[in-house]
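A reminder before we start the practical. When you read a complex entry, don't treat the lines as separate problems. The point of joint prediction is that each chain is placed relative to the others, so the output describes one connected object in space. Small molecules and nucleic acid strands, if listed, are placed in the same frame. In the example below there are two entries. Take a minute to note the order of the lines before looking further.
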Amino acid sequence: MTIELYHWEPTGDSAKALIGLHEIGVAFTGRYVDVLKFEQYRPEHLALAPAGQVPVLVHDGEVFNEPRLLLEYLADAFPQAKLAPRDAGGWYDVQDWVRFADAQLNDAVRLLGWHAIMLPEMSTADRTAFEQKFAGVPVKEQQAGWAAVVRDAESTENKLENARGRVREALARMEPVLAKSEWLLGGVHSIADINAFALAWPLPKLMPDEVNAQKTPGVKNWLQRMAARPAFKAAMSARRAAGEVPRFAPA
Amino acid sequence: MLQLYTWDPNSNSGKPIFALKEKGVEFEFHYIDLLRFEQHAPEYLAVNPSGTVPTLIHDGRHLTESSPMCEYIDAAFPGPSLRPTDARELYLMRRWCRDVDTKYAPALSVLGWHAFMGPMVRQMDPKEVERLIARIPLKERRIAWSTAVKSTFTEEQLQGARDRVAAWIKAMDDRLKESPYLAGPTYSVADIVCFANAYALPVSQPQLATEAKAPHYFAWLSRIYARPAIREAFKLGRTPLAARALQMIEEFGKR
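Here is the predicted structure of the whole assembly.
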């Protein structure tokens, strides 16, 4: 059996797959794709993922290039790892949380992270160089997304506030659950936790006044429980960027 | 007894009806009339506070996500299986469902609103429309509705939606060239979810969904229209959409 994972830094979808594989404990080869160097648009990557998707899982020669479905696939392909409950209700709850977290948090956290962490590191020259690179993005509908986050950098307070609103809606559903139970499904850790955690772990840095031990103790303790698991520590070792700061790319 | 709150067998509303009929499961059918905005009425918000259809209630559990709901129905009840057992085919099944739910159904909704709901709502008393929008519980749905009511779509937006639907028909046709059903050799939740959104395209988008352009998609439609469960499901509809679907069953049956 061979498993390869083409991934970027352990935030968002790449974190989901890395943590999931480490929770299973299966051997795999990690292949780092530097999204900010546009390596996802190289011909060899496009051959696996025509829209430049990252991460991509290759399992015994079969390509799985829908990043949002890799955890569900891993739960099915490695049932002995018990990544999810298999009864009808438990599995429905898993999918409900996965879809909810993806819809509420994915784009919102990427945008907040980009503005709080990535843009301040970029000089004007960096931004110009970046613009020149994304002019070559072969997937036309993605060009606009890349352009918007650099060119509209100063006029996005509305977008950022919308993103914070999405995060607040997610917290409003997660906090009451996590204030009472250890995991999103109650007593059992599952891919619902991995999926939401991979998106949410940078939130205490991005919205410190709203995600903290006083305002959201349930979420804060759950983030700590998740971060303490060996699988997360192992996933973090896939980092190439220096330091503990999470990295983000435009949606 | 299983309770299903839903509208006509169309799009999200249709998915659990098709699945339950296929499994042969009895259920109590509560018709929520979307054309009268009953999904935002207090009686229904007591059932599902977010005001979306469908809602399935089983053993005290309220299910509101329509594609995972179909997997639930398959797992919770006896009857013919609607999910493959192979992990890769399950992934393919969910991929069709996710793509429909996040990309293609929203594009169809733009076209449907433009052709049908928009003109209908603009004929109504603006005060009444305002009242109906004010009671929508989800902020983002409220914004979407007020935008849709006030403005018409630009030609660019409409063309974007048409392009997306055309890409979907091509993707289905390509897949169905190599496989009788979308996830693999057997009829599954992927087919139910796609069919619930694609069953009427030959009449609603006659330029995009033609037999010449998509013969394998047409053959797939024909096979699904021939299923007794599909006919039973459309009999529950009360709008011209369902009447038109029953007519298509007859037409496909003659081929």
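Discuss with your neighbour: DSSP finds twelve helices and four strands in chain B. What might explain this?
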